[in-house]
Amino acid sequence: MPSAKPIVGIGRVLLWSGGSLWIGRATGHAQAHAHHAIQVSMALTGRLRLCGAETPWRDHAVAMVHPHQRHQFDGGGETVAQIFVEPETTQGRALLQLHDAAPIVDLPSETIQPLLAALRDGFASEAPDEALIAISHRLVDTLCGQALPAFSVDPRISRAIEFMRERLSEPVTLAQAAAAAHLSPSRFRHLFVAQTGMSLRAYLLWARVEAAVGAAMGGVSWTEAAQAWGFADSAHLSRTCRRMFGIAPTMLVRP
Q: Is the model's pLDDT at 251 over the cut of 90?
């Protein structure tokens, strides 16, 4: 059985356009949660455990959780890495095309062992952010193999997402996002849900909580991060983070 303790000890959170890396030693488990991104969970030492809404706890070396799937995670005191990939990206589409069988699927770990070792060693040696991000990109590219997405995100939605991500610290309205996509608000609302699987409001909330956590892990206080990214206060950010990632921000420990 997984530990009853809440998860603590994530050492670093690094963000880039379309994804993020959460890496460190994890003890305890994250409560049931769901989020927009594809989650690639990797045990850098030992094994990790995952369970879904309708699937029991299982051990994994490397596994993928599909978007919007309710699940729990248990690091078991091991060093783990979680890479979150936006499903609208080319990498995200390729992963979903390759692994579309179940909410939680095992991924082949043999071809990425050198990259897992590089990620583990880079974290242990406090490598620069850019180095860990580069390894993460290579790792996901390797998992994607030669797969090409069967279809890509509508470029109008891609423009709107880029527009919004450049303004996450500001209020963004449906009308503004629709204008960036050169669509009417009603048409944009329909197309955005069809392409992303979630409402505009939910997407902005996901992007903002991820950005706030990244800022706080970079040295900004949780209160400052909450206010900078549009949350009423740190308690509001904490509740949202717990709902989306299964953990509260204060459980993330800086190295």
A: no
- Whole-number Cα distances in Å, 197 to 15, 36, 86, 194, 201: 22, 8, 12, 6, 12
**What is the Cα–Cα distance from 59 to 90, expressed in whole angstroms?**
29
Q: What is the pLDDT of residues 101-145, one digit of tens each?
A: 789 999 988 989 999 999 999 999 999 999 999 999 999 999 988
Q: What is the pTM of this model?
A: 0.80
**253 is a domain residue:** no
- Residue 1 inside a domain? The answer is no
Q: Which structural domain range is residue 236 located in?
A: 155-245
- Name the residue type at position 249: P
19-27 and 58-60 beta bridge pairing: unpaired
Total domains in the fold of the chain = 2
Strand 29-33 to 62-65 pairing: unpaired
Q: Let me know if residue 255 belongs to a domain.
A: no
> Listing from the earlier edge strand, what are the strands of the sheet with 79-85?
8-16, 19-27, 79-85, 38-43, 62-65, 104-106
Domain assignment present for residue 31? The answer is yes
Residues 163 and 131 in one domain: no
For the chain, what is the HEC assignment? CCCCCECEEEEEEEEECCEEEEEEEEECEEEEECCCCEEEEEECCCCEEEEECCCCCEEECEEEECCCCCEEEECCCCEEEEEEECCCCHHHHHHHHHCCCCCEEECCCHHHHHHHHHHHHHHHCCCCHHHHHHHHHHHHHHHHCCCCCCCCCCHHHHHHHHHHHCCCCCCCCHHHHHHHCCCCHHHHHHHHHHHHCCCHHHHHHHHHHHHHHHHHHCCCCHHHHHHHCCCCCHHHHHHHHHHHHCCCHHHECCC
